[in-house]
Sequence to fold (399 residues):
Amino acid sequence: MMRALPIAAMALLCLAPRPTAADPLDVAVGKALFDRMWVPSPASTRGSDGLGPLYTARSCAGCHAGGGGSRTAARPDGTIDPKALVVRLGSDAGPGDPVYGLQVQTLGTAVVAPEAAVAFDLVPSPDPALGPLVTGIRLDALAYGALPPATRTEARRAPALHGIGLLAGVPDDALNALADPADHDGDGISGRLGSGRFGWKALEPTVESQTTAALLTDLGLSTVDRPDHAGDCTAAEAACLRAPHGDGGHADGVEVPADALRTLVAYVSALPAPVAAPDPRGDALFRSAGCAACHVPELAGAGGRPVRAFTDLLLHDMGPGLEGGFPEGDASRAEWRTAALWGLGRAVRHGDRLLHDGRAATVDEAIRWHGGEAARARDRYRDLPPAEAARLLAYLEGL
Ligand code: HEC
Ligand code: HEC
Fold:
């Protein structure tokens, strides 16, 4: 017989949806891997070596502490912690630079020079009405020469991972049913599926593929699916390709064997989803302003379970103001995946800056940056009487 739980504990169990019934041992082992500080090869700790040779952080938790997202609050001197954002590279042809690869690697093992020192300053906004200051990227001490003129930079914030296993469980059919690429219903909103559903450009199809991509690009660790032991090193970075690596001594001949990857994915997928306080008035304002057309309050997840993430996981053209530096996967420069709004309250309480590159200081600024398919909803928000706008913002900050 089940032991009776106190009412409060029962309410909590009902409210905090845990995505899957993963094996608790897998989840515990996966958490240790998520927090593990990897070390370069060769090392005496055989299980944890293989880092880099070029890398951006030493652990998943280095960017997603506690499974959360980047801590992008501005510091008193008007800069953002250089570890809070990653700098991606690309051109009109797509992601990547011929010499520096997909991402500016700010760290290197003893035998390889880091690619650059990165700093993020708050600089005057191109349109002060949207927000006075936006994120500016500074690259100093570029170790492999200047970037070619065709290469553009783009800062990216790490999203919080809470509830991601639930998002992974939403069937493709449910997303296809929301997509309206040719805007047949004439509402000005034409969401479409990206090449996947994770990342700001909906590039990666599964938590596992996103994780192997992170292992490769952020930590320089190989997996069965992405076996390049030198991570994001390019042919132009010869010392990096020659440096020692950890593939030889591990199972499966890669730095992160299949079994370890499985537990890492189990942990990430089991992170419990954020839970919002009910607010019917705020909810009504959110819907009547047209926000819910993209930030769909509830999706039907695996087995029909409600997933209250406030996203359709689709790509939307957000207009020239939000255009990034390069197209990626199926997404053009101006297309972004609808940001999930669950957990927004936590980011706001931390003082984190918002949108893909942390350009918005507040929720109000984040909404004002919306354009393109979201222009009508943004205008409805701007036209709300002040008391109603405040009510809507309070609702969002309670998510
Ligand atoms: C250097 C910082 C950094 C590290 C280290 C890092 N991530 Fe991330 N993570 C990001 C960024 C930035 C994004 C957004 C990626 C994009 O849009 O290109 C992201 C996105 C994700 C997503 C998709 C979230 C979503 O809402 O779509 C998952 C899942 C994820 N990371 C898991 C991991 C795991 C697991 C690890 C360790 C293997 C890891 N990350 C290591 C920065 C990092
Ligand atoms: C056409 C689709 C669409 C509509 C309509 C829309 N949004 Fe968004 N929203 C997005 C996309 C896409 C992003 C991510 C953009 C980026 O980061 O560059 C986003 C980001 C956000 C963010 C920032 C979240 C974060 O974590 O950085 C907030 C807050 C937000 N939207 C609130 C709203 C509100 C409130 C409304 C209604 C007034 C609204 N949105 C209408 C697509 C939409």
In short: The chain has a mean pLDDT of 93. The longest strand covers residues 117-124. The radius of gyration is 21 Å. Residues 189, 289-291, 293-295, 316, 318, 322, 336, 338-339, 344, 354-356, 363, 366-367, 370, 373-374, 377-378, 381, 396 surround heme C (ligand 2) (CB under 6 Å).
